[in-house]
């Protein structure tokens, strides 16, 4: 059983996040920040309202952040206001119906010091954006990067939740290895993994599980029945209290071949090389370069780019924030307490697609793996 007790003062943690955001607002000469979120949650987009409030909305939500002092939350639908009041980062909240959202936000925004900026314009419905512009007699400057710039490194409460999500991912993969059998459908295996992770505390899971004797990529599970010798690849991404972790591993339903073992050892070496350079102060692109040096040096340079692979990893935790994808041609400087997945997942002509990757936190001496499944090729003889 996974122990998911939390020991960090969440209210103090959230207050610290707000103060850092407000300091960045003052640095950029922003008097008030209007933060919009649409209530559609996914692993690729950061919920900036949730980051500052710990409230995950059902509908359209706006957080009004002054350069100093408490923020005000406006939620839709109106009946969800009681749930919002229970959130650790909320002290001033108002519930309104969707048709009254723009009017209420504009009235409240006039109480903020200027100049104002807006975050979330790109996900607003066109009609809502037009109403805001009309009501304010102008389109607000884009303030969408203010909160992500602060959120690039994780707070103690965030690290605690990502650690819990990592333990849940490990449990999911353990159940995959224990449960997989010949004749089972892929979606049945995925359901067993999903059920185990929900029992361990997961709220959601972005799970991809595929099987075959020569996979070309990871994909959602299908109705195909598992066969002896199948290579089962899993990208397991559970959510715990709004935060995600990801584990990538490969499992063979039967004895692996010598070639499969050899090529997986190459992926292990690539993961180790990429992890060795992942330290504060270096560009995140160096991780991708280090991984590709190992795989390319083994004769697979042409497979180190699309369509055979997309990225050597990516940020993860609360949506997609810095450093985003780990590629050779782009990447910011790594900082202490950034979290990400490093995964030299790779298609190889001899073996098909194989997966290997861990969620890590960047620390002074290098990355510390939060997922703890052994770094090896897994198999089960039938």
Outline the structure in words.
There is one protein chain. The chain is α+β, with helices and mostly antiparallel strands and 382 residues long. It folds into 2 domains: 10-150, Creatinase/prolidase N-terminal domain (Creatine Amidinohydrolase, Chain A, domain 1, 3-Layer(aba) Sandwich), CATH 3.40.350; 156-379, Creatine Amidinohydrolase. Helix content is 34%, strand content 19%. Helix 7 crosses helix 8 and helix 9 (258-276) runs antiparallel to helix 10 (285-300). The two termini are 27 Å apart. The model has no long low-confidence stretch (mean pLDDT 93).
CATH superfamily membership of the largest domain, which one?
A: Creatinase/methionine aminopeptidase superfamily
The figure for the number of domains is: 2
Q: Please state how the strands of the largest beta sheet are arranged side by side.
A: 4-3-2-1-5
Count all strands and give the number: 18
Do you know the CATH topology of the largest domain?
Creatine Amidinohydrolase
SS summary, helix count = 10
